[in-house]
Amino acid sequence: MADVQTPVIRTDIPHSARIWNYWMGGKDHYEIDKIAGDAGLAVDPEIATMAVQSRQYLIRAVRFVAKERGIKQFLDIGTGLPTMQNTHEVAQGVTPEAKVVYVDNDPLVLAHARALLTSTTDEGVTTYIDADFHDPEQIIADARNVLNFNEPIAVMFMGVLGHAKTYDDLLRIVRTVIGAVPSGSHLIYWDGTDDSQAYVTLCENYTGTGGTPYVPRTQAQIRGIFDDLEVVEPGVVSITQWRSETTEVGQALPISAYGAVARKP
């Protein structure tokens, strides 16, 4: 049997997925990620809130498209490290036969993705693709081996396309994938926005560590991603305000992270 090359996991350069895991209270990170994470918190203390709230948004959005829109197939691109209530757990909690394909190209993420296969339902499918979101054509080709592209698919980009090289490249990636799925499919999306100078500075500092640059977008740019799609109420809003329950002290406060759920006509 040929030797399988072990993926190289860099522990000397911080990685956004591992830092995000640290901010969410997870354990899948290295000392360099903790150092970068603590430095980020010093610049923008609200980043931990964004990390936690992004998962709450994922839960609400996946549950919505599974329960209210009857979606049974999910393509989660740039999934990041698993924590709690991952996409397949939420989707299969509503629809046990749901199929979930995770996509990432980070070796640590992929190593943990293998463990996710043990927590799927008997009826459902959970698998992963080793691919870079900059190559959406390859993602589509590989996803066709699992998902039925004649039936609606929920395409997910959850806080990852700030890593796209340019905004035009971001649009190319999203529109290529959405162009391949049928009518009735949904896009679930969010990314960080440039409303907060502290958050912008945090992202600039992260780039300075050698990590892959993450560029916050304007709210107008986020809205532009949903052109030609039917955006679900309440529209493009801060993720804390997307179909969130009213708290005891009033509505959830907005943060510098905006997104929406939209249907392909």
Task: Record keyword descriptors for this entry.
265 residues, alpha/beta, Rossmann fold, eight-stranded mixed sheet, 9 helices, globular, disordered N terminus
Number of helices: 9
Total domain count: 1
> What's the CATH superfamily, by name?
Vaccinia Virus protein VP39
CATH class: Alpha Beta
Helix content: 25-40%
CATH architecture: 3-Layer(aba) Sandwich
Radius of gyration, taken over Cα atoms and rounded to an integer in Å = 18 Å
- Please state roughly what percent of the residues sit in beta strands, choosing from under 5%, 5-15%, 15-25%, 25-35%, 35-45% or over 45%: 15-25%
**SSE order in H/E notation?**
HHHEHEHEHEHEHHEEE
Mean of pLDDT: 89
Under CATH, the topology can be stated as Rossmann fold
Distance between the termini: 49 Å
- Count of extended strands: 8
Low-confidence stretches: 1-6
- The rough form would be described as globular
Task: Give an account of the 3D structure.
There is one protein chain. Helix 4 (87-94) links the parallel strand 1 and strand 2 (99-104). This protein has helices at residues 16-23, 31-43, 47-67, 87-94, 107-116, 136-143, 167-180, 197-208, 219-224, and strands spanning 73-77, 99-104, 125-130, 154-158, 186-192, 230-231, 237-238, 257-263. It is globular. The protein has one domain (16-263): Rossmann fold, CATH 3.40.50. It is of the alpha/beta class and 265 residues long.
Note the topology.
Layout: H1 16-23, H2 31-43, H3 47-67, E1 73-77, H4 87-94, E2 99-104, H5 107-116, E3 125-130, H6 136-143, E4 154-158, H7 167-180, E5 186-192, H8 197-208, H9 219-224, E6 230-231, E7 237-238, E8 257-263
Parallel strand pairs: 1-2, 1-4, 2-3, 4-5
Antiparallel strand pairs: 5-8, 6-8, 7-8
Helix pairs in contact: 1-2, 2-8, 3-4, 6-7
